[in-house]
Amino acid sequence: EPCSFSELYDAVDVDDSGQFNYHLDRLVGHFVRKTDEGYELRQPGRRVVEAVLSGAVTETPTLERTPVDQRCEYCESPLVARWREGSVELFCTECAGKFSYQGPDDGENSEGYLGRLPLPPAGLRNRDPDEIVRTAWTWTQLEVMAFASGICPRCSATVEYELSVCESHDASEGLCEACERHPAITASVRCTNCIYKSGGAALLGVLTHVDVLAFLTDHGLNPVQPTDIHRVNQAHEAYDEEILATDLLRAQFTVTVDGDRLTVTVDEELSVVDTSVEPA
């Protein structure tokens, strides 16, 4: 609600009213609106307050490696999770995971790395480790849905994709020695305006396609807030890949759920050019 100058001044630990007035005046215009009722936040000011209250710019909570009630999409083994630098990191306790570890070298065993799920510090408050992982998973899926729709989840500008293809891929024994990852085709996404970037298994870039969504939901898999994260992860991550052409890339991703198979064909820009469903 709008606040008067005196209300704001009394709420801030500043002794010099002239100094306070100077700084408040600098905010008026872009961040703060001055009206007959007093001063109130404009939308950019609200975004700043939201960032502060999320803890993203003020807090560094602690969640050391902790067993969680989730299983690896590749080998069904239990997972451990930890929070580091704005993300929940997941590790399989048995297999090689999805990628070689991409974080700082802190001397800990980084085998079994399955990736990171962005989560502001506020997401850890009043939640146990399992609730933290589920919250991070949903938060990340909403982000994925945005960039899969061509929208930057940070600033709303357009995004660009770049595909990376390992033509000599062999992940039969864990991670491929040539590319140090489980999937042969990965996608990196970058905002055309801000510094946002992300990436992962290429199928994530087409999750908002109507045929992909229909296949998941027809099999009882909620792609944002599932009852069983493990089953959705298997569909999202542990799918079959086939590279059809490399000059002008054509690739197929085949997702299997309950014996039914969805095949998605994409081009070099990660645009869907064909889909087909083969019942069990």
Describe the structure.
24% of the residues lie in helices and 30% in strands. It is built from 6 helices and 13 strands. It has helices at 5-11, 17-27, 43-53, 129-148, 210-218, 229-237, and strands spanning 32-35, 38-41, 63-71, 78-84, 87-92, 113-118, 159-165, 185-191, 197-201, 240-245, 250-257, 260-267, 272-278. Strand 1 (32-35) and strand 2 form a beta hairpin. The N and C termini lie far apart (59 Å).
Oligomeric assembly: single chain
- The biggest beta sheet, please? 4 strands, antiparallel
Query: What is the terminal-to-terminal distance?
Result: 59 Å
| Low-pLDDT runs | none
How much is the average pLDDT? 92
How do the helices and strands follow one another from N- to C-terminus? HHEEHEEEEHEEEHHEEEE
Q: Percent of residues in beta strands?
A: 25-35%
Number of strands: 13
| Main sheet strand line-up | 3-4-5-6
Q: How does the helix and strand content classify structurally?
A: alpha+beta
Morphology call: elongated
Range of helix content? 10-25%
